Amino acid sequence: MSAELNKFYCNKKILVTGHTGFKGAWLTKILQNFGAQVSGYSLEPNTDHNLFSVWGLTDSIDHHIIGDIRDYKKFDRVVNKYQPDIVFHLAAQPLVRDSYDNPLYTYETNVMGTAHVLESIRQNKIKAGVIITTDKVYKNFERNVAYKEDNQLGGHDPYSNSKACADLVTDSYIKSFFDPAHYDKHHRSMVASARAGNVIGGGDWAKDRLIPDAMRAFLADNKRLVIRSPRAIRPWQHVFEPLHGYLLLAQQLYEGNKAAVGAWNFGPHDEDMQSVEDVLGLIIKHLGRGKYIVRGDKIKHEATNLKLDNTKAKKILGWQPRYNLHIAVKETCCWYEGYYKKSPKFIHKLTDKQIMEYFK
User: What is the pTM for the complete model shown?
Assistant: First the structure.
């Protein structure tokens, strides 16, 4: 699969929005390793530590544009100038708890930002676009069931709801402007949305996320970790898993596979949908250290039970999770241990090694 993806993406012109974020930086790095010509449009990194700086992507990326996805005119000028073959849209306000503090900014970024990307794809006749949303787009009935792509959308908090809206905007653009039935007749663009689970991996330093908070507490600060919902179940997966899915999906869209249009789940195997406490147990076991306390927050609601059904991606795209939860946690912990305990040169080598081993 790696040879096929490498061949496809080599010399392709790719635009990644949100390339300075956690997933965006990993996607940029993987595409660079595949030989793609990558342009990025994003805000400046908003954490003290960030992958974009750790890897020196400012110097290695083909085009690095700092811009707000809410600024349609500026974004459209970038798309028009570089004429990418494929757009991956990851720029977002990505945090549930921040969305309670800044709901208008969350909606402006996640809903109108997505509309701006889709409109620019339409106006510039871009061949393929993958719009990244989230597993939290579904109306959550707090039942022990895995949500499928055609289940009802909803979202309790402003973040989840804004992402559900982004998915609806994408669906509307597909029906109105990118209908696969009219492909090659009235348009030449294929678009899909991708919903992934709780993504873990080296180099995430966002606040209010389990892995970054745990690594800061256990490796950097030597403090007890404070968690809110130890029994909350999430579809945990290594960052490579959904990125692999996005890459496969974009390839199918670019090549004109009409079955690739629409919404897609990229989630782990059923047995890897575990509780926060279970994941913490694996982290502590691997690191050989770590303590935590529980301090709930009843004001800012967060879902308790969330699972994804990945049947569609497995059947149609041939995508499968390659890492179970144990391996995902191990690879994540190894990256952070390397970052906090070893040299920058080591972390560059480890990053390339992890990419090569997953995609081999």
Answer: 0.95
